[in-house]
Amino acid sequence: MLEVGSPTVLSFRTNTTCNALLRELQQIWDDIGESETEKDRMLMELERECLEIYRRKVEEASNSKARLHQSVAAVEAEVASLMAALGVLNMQSPIKAGKGSKSLKEKLEAVKPLVEDLRLQKEERMKQFADIKAQIEKISGEISGYSDQLNKAMISSLTLEEQDLSLRKLNEYQTHLRTLQKEKSDRLNKVLDHVNEVHTLCGVLGIDFGQTVSEVHPSLHRTNHEQSTNISDNTLGGLEHTIQKLKAERRARFQKLKDIVTSLFELWNLMDTPQEERIRFAHVISAVRSSESSINEPGILSTKTIEQVSEEVDCLSKLKASRMKELVMKRRSELEDLCRMAHIEPDTSTSVEKSIALIDSGLVDPSELLANIEVQINKSQEEAQSRKEIMDRIHRWLSACEEENWLEEYNQDENRYSAGRGSHINLKRAERARVTVSKIPSMVDTLIKRTLVWEEERQKPFLYDGVRLVSILEDYQMTRKQREEEKKRFRDQKKSQDLLLTQREAIYGSKPSPRRSNSFRKSYGNGSMTATPRRNSVGTTTPDLLTPRSYSGQRQNGYFKEVRRLSTAPINFVAIQKEDTVSTYTSICGSEPDSPPQG
Fold this sequence. Notes:
Number of strands: 2
Order of helices and strands: HHHHHHHHHHHHHHHHHHEEHHHHHHH
Largest sheet: 2 strands, antiparallel
Radius of gyration: 65 Å
Strand order of the largest sheet: 1-2
Strand content: under 5%
């Protein structure tokens, strides 16, 4: 059975209709009476017209088929192009998948959704590329400073190619954009750091910040958003150059202020400026004492601050000129005090009398004289420092001598062993004093050796108040030795005296007659012998011995007397006691015949 719509059915229907119409036409021709020739002619014309219609329809169908083929081919090409541009490699075209089983229209209809989808993907991808490209061009322009030449080169290198819209290419653009964004962030932070540093330096130097950064780029003094566009090499280079210039200016001003403050300190110290007046420049002094790089106080190195300090120095300098004579006298007095404490002789070229005479005569500038005294003070300080060890030993020796004096006085006290208040303290001190006194000879020997080493190193004598210390020490040793010998002779003499008195008492009795007693008291009361022989035997040791203090006490008008005149011999206790003993003995013996024996 034939299917409806098939070519055979259509041909059958066409033939049936044409035959019916042809029979109807022949009947009409018969009724009309047309000839056979006319009938054949008209049939031939009818056949020709039908063929013409079929041929036209075939041509139209052929053209439609060609157009469909062309459309399908164009769509296939577009799909291939879109897939290639988008980098889609794993997608199969519906046309190729249904080849040979579908009509052209079906193929065309089947591929339309894919084409629309690929077109949307391309459009979206184009937007992504355009957005990234715009950002890249913007950041590149900011980095290049919108230089026309660099900007054109960057735009030409980023010309969007529609043939390559793949994800790989998009990732390359995104990677490039992230790199530029990071560089922009780094440059922005660097610009902000430079701007902050310029702001700090301008504040310290008292310079207008806005004008300074505007010289680099006008927008640096505006909003942060505007600042973010100024990250070019020119901007960074300009800021770095400005920072170097400001640092150089800070270094120069710091040194200038430091020099001025140094002069200010010298004038303050010279003129004894009170602390209340100095406090006005406390912040400046604090800044100068710190390092240059750590200064951040606004205006501390401004020209105004430097001018204020300079004006103070000028004012003090004028005041100094009017008080120069007083300052010279003061510094000379300080020099003499320093020399007196170190027991050295001050330079006589700047003595008070000579300094006053030179200033009054106008022959010498007071500043030069003051500078000369300053030099002498420095030399004296150095000299005192080099003598410090020996002076410390001298002080310990003199302290030991004082302990010896105290011990002598303590030994003369007949009530020293009484149970009075503080007696135990004196006993402990006496014990320590005896240990100290026993060390005096070794202390003197060591001091002499140290002094000789000092003299050999410096090739000059060690003078103590103008007298050579070694000579003082040697005289002290000799006098101490003589004193010890005299004390020994006195002790021996006293023993002989006590033995003689004991013998006389054994002969005449222990109770003396009134005459004998009076004679004995008279011999003690006439000044030739003290009531306590021991007290007179030791006396005061140090004044008799030639210590540096005894030399220092004999100075007159800054000069020493003759050293040997100071070396007065100690009292000859032995000779005195001999006279007292003979007088006592004669008194006792002389009174004996007149007095009756004591039973």
